[in-house]
């Protein structure tokens, strides 16, 4: 078999990730390799850490990526702080909450589960009541659940945890850089994100930040690497070398203690993605994501399709559409992809086959993408015989855009 | 502070990795993102797996990358097969052997250590004797130790392990794609490599392959992910979700069971790097690496500097040079980097400050790089007052090249 050079079709990606990378990030990816201890590379590491502090809105000492996809960062935090028998409260309101329980379980922790019906989130007071009952070491929760398109309010939970010396770990994979997230103000002890969503960078790194409360645990669990000392032992040692944050933080400190070989190209991309965010300004970026999410919802409602989930805690960057009765959700996605070159997502678990998930994240969160996806969905549904308000979706979104962006006087 | 677009100096990288990526790989990195379940992306996954089979020279069912740097792949294999109390023999002849013991230890295994003086490797019979004494479940060993530049012969060890139903796990991070490695012929049960060395791809993925003997263990340790079933339990479950090969192999199988979000861009790069290897031909590529390694050694000897380590088991892709007495190894590397733009490496542990490590791997394994590094080292040593045979190094390498590549008749 002969293998040819990559020759991929053009795609408009309107899923909850991976989404389109900013073209400036794509360009940065082609930058030639420099060595991991080259002073110029160390400089890129420092700049990336600075920029992460900006995006996480934190004064924490530590902010760096783990070299792996989003879940690698979540596992790094949980496995580094959870010891056998530790109690962890996990409020679950969608698929990725269950992933947290999976990781707690594998780290030897005891999960105290709360489950909300898919489409809802928790009243913070209910979470606090559960925390009071359990008195856990850690509360681990997802901020934005892409499986249901819902956003969990965190401020009150954070306040209670801090007052009671409980650690709050948040999976902000789907929100950071597109939805308001205030690490310090909300008293979040550790936050993990992904690159392939609102940061508009390809998948493959998991930026995270944590504070001194987390670091104190890491230092107690630290073990000198074999090779430096074969005798070193620590009964509380972290069960992974790759995810040992006590070692990774040394690599990212001025000591530069060797751990893994930092992923050169992905770091170029992450730095560029963060630089672009700084240039846009984090508040402007969040406003942009809010605006395009709103335009999408307005358009879909005008089309006459039904949105899923309670409106109040909807993620601005994920919009969930109920599949009209009698049609195949997969067939619609196939037409969208093959004819329009637009990718939207199906669903997991109880929602599988019942909804589509439309993302508007990162570089994909822009006017032309929103207008295209509305037009394509309308055409496709019409093709399958669904009765929609023809022409209304794009028109409603267009009117919204012209109103908020650039009020023009129409000539009659 | 203002952050500008990346603007990096041009570097010639002659370290044992990360080395220069093939320019075709750099171009592939800029390819726009497509979704992880896009049929075109699934096709790239399949092609990458096929190409990995070619490079690993194996008929194994499984060959795929773990999304992380090289050591993530090693940890994935060890943590997926080693259970608490399992005996593991680890013959250590340099720094990266100790890393294996570190990972065995964290997975709960019992390490039975063998140590060779740095610069030597093991007589396979001595390893076999140790294996007979211990009767371990696993033997874990490094193929090429970049810390010492030595290559461990594996064939006899593999034969003995297979006959006695012991698993052989090999770290071929520094050798695969540049040095002969025959997974099936040598009876290796699991092999892990890195992208940033002889594959000429940036750091960030850990391709691996394993056979049915390994897979049988994975299947016994498999646990259904929470979210699908909260009740599912397995007392032998793998302690990591991210490194759970029983799950990752399902993601890479036709079932495409969701695990992580595959790192799009790095997979583009890996596929292109492997495609380029197939085009060159694995045997030709190994010959090329051997040739340039030999040219480098010939040049260095002609210069009058001393090489480190026994000649017989020298890695063709790493050449270790003793630092002449009375000069600072670091100062030499600084001049090389800042004035010539050439990076060579220092050393670890007992060799720190005493040797330089010069790599000739992947795209960096080429004529002009070898001739440049010889010239630059000669100039730099001369600058520091070391007596070298001026002009002889490049001349000797040049003569070797002209002889083996393209015998020309000199006009007098």
Automatic annotation (TrEMBL), chains A, B:
| Record GO biological process | glycine biosynthetic process, by transamination of glyoxylate
Record domain Aminotransferase class V: where: 38-344
N6-(pyridoxal phosphate)lysine modification sites?
197
- What InterPro entries does its record include? Aminotrans_V_dom (IPR000192), Aminotrans_V_PyrdxlP_BS (IPR020578), PyrdxlP-dep_Trfase (IPR015424), PyrdxlP-dep_Trfase_major (IPR015421), PyrdxlP-dep_Trfase_small (IPR015422), SP_NH2Trfase/AEP_transaminase (IPR024169)
Task: Cite a single GO MF annotation.
Answer: L-serine-pyruvate transaminase activity
Q: Which cofactor does it need?
A: pyridoxal 5'-phosphate
The source's superkingdom equals Bacteria
**PANTHER family from the entry?**
ALANINE--GLYOXYLATE AMINOTRANSFERASE, AMINOTRANSFERASE CLASS V
Family classification: Belongs to the class-V pyridoxal-phosphate-dependent aminotransferase family.
Q: What is this protein called?
A: Purine catabolism protein PucG
Q: Which gene encodes it?
A: pucG
């Amino acid at each position: 078999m002969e293998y040819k050079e990559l020759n991929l079709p053009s795609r408009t990606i309107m899923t909850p990730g991976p989404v389109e990378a900013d073209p400036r990030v794509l360009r940065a990816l082609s930058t030639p390799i420099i060595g991991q201890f080259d002073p110029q590379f160390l400089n890129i590491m420092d700049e990336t850490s600075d920029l992460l502090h900006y995006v996480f809105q934190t004064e924490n000492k530590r902010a760096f990526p783990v070299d792996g996809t989003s879940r690698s960062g979540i596992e790094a935090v949980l496995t580094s702080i959870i010891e056998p028998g530790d109690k962890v409260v996990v409020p679950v309101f969608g698929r990725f909450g269950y992933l947290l329980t999976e990781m707690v379980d594998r780290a030897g922790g005891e999960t105290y589960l709360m489950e909300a019906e898919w489409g809802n989130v928790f009243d913070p007071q209910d979470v606090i009541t559960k925390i009071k009952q359990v008195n856990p070491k850690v509360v681990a929760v997802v901020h934005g659940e892409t499986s249901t398109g819902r956003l969990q309010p965190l401020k009150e939970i954070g306040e209670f945890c801090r007052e009671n010396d409980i650690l709050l770990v948040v999976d902000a994979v789907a929100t950071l850089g597109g939805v308001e997230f205030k690490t310090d103000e909300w008293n979040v002890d550790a936050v993990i994100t992904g690159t392939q969503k609102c940061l508009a960078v390809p998948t493959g790194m998991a930026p995270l930040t944590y504070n001194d409360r987390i670091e104190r645990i890491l230092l107690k669990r630290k073990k000198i690497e074999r090779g430096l000392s074969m005798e070193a032992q620590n009964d509380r040692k972290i069960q992974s070398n790759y995810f040992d944050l006590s070692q990774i933080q040394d690599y990212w400190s001025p000591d530069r203690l060797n751990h893994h070989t930092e992923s050169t190209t992905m770091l170029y991309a992450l730095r560029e993605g963060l630089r672009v965010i700084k240039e846009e300004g984090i508040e402007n970026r969040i406003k942009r994501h809010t605006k395009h999410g709103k335009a999408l919802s307005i358009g879909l409602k005008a089309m006459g399709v039904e949105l899923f989930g309670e409106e109040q805690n909807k993620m601005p960057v994920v919009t969930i559409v109920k599949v009209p009765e009698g049609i195949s959700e997969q067939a619609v996605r196939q037409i969208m992809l093959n004819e329009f070159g637009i990718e939207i997502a199906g669903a997991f678990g109880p929602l599988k086959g019942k909804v589509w998930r439309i993302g508007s994240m990162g570089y994909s969160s822009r006017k032309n993408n929103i207008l295209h996806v509305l037009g394509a969905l309308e055409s496709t549904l019409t093709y399958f015989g669904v009765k929609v308000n023809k022409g209304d979706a794009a028109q409603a979104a267009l009117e919204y855009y012209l109103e908020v962006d650039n009020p023009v006087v129409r000539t009659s």
